[in-house]
């Protein structure tokens, strides 16, 4: 947040990067190098809390890279088709997620618990796309 607060595009009254847009953010265009960058219009205290987001101006990077998200997506793919996942596959998925997102999830034989973890992983992948 300190980086955002020091940025000339940060709007303290709305705590946003550029102009806030409630639907499909298409923030303000800003010159960067030879081209233009679109400011996100996001509410920054929320955005900086997600490890899958970065600054559109490159002032701070996402903590989880696209390669990690792709790896998670590939591990989830077989289960997406069948609706089932072997214990070893689930453990590997959780290990990769824990490593990249610095969480401490544990494998459980409880279906509801595993669905909650998988839902969190899917959400992280969606946010990072």
Output the keywords.
single chain; 129 residues; mainly alpha; two-stranded antiparallel sheet; two-stranded antiparallel ribbon; 4 strands; elongated
Order of helices and strands: HEEEEHHHH
Large-scale geometry: elongated
- N- to C-terminal separation? 22 Å
Strand content: 5-15%
Sheet bearing the most strands, described?
2 strands, antiparallel
The secondary-structure class comes to: mainly alpha
How many domains make up the coordinates? 2
Rg, please?
Answer: 18 Å
- Percent of residues in helices comes to 40-55%
Mean pLDDT: 82
Number of helices: 5
Low-confidence stretches: none
Counted beta strands: 4
Strand order of the largest sheet: 1-2
Structure in words:
The chain is built from five helices and four strands. Strands 1-2 form a two-stranded antiparallel sheet. The protein has helices spanning 2-6, 44-47, 66-82, 87-101, 111-128; strands spanning 10-11, 16-17, 29-32, 35-38. With 129 residues, the chain is mainly α. It is 46% helix and 9% strand. It has two domains: 2-47, no CATH class; 66-128, no CATH class. The longest helix has 18 residues, at 111-128. The radius of gyration is 18 Å and the shape is elongated.
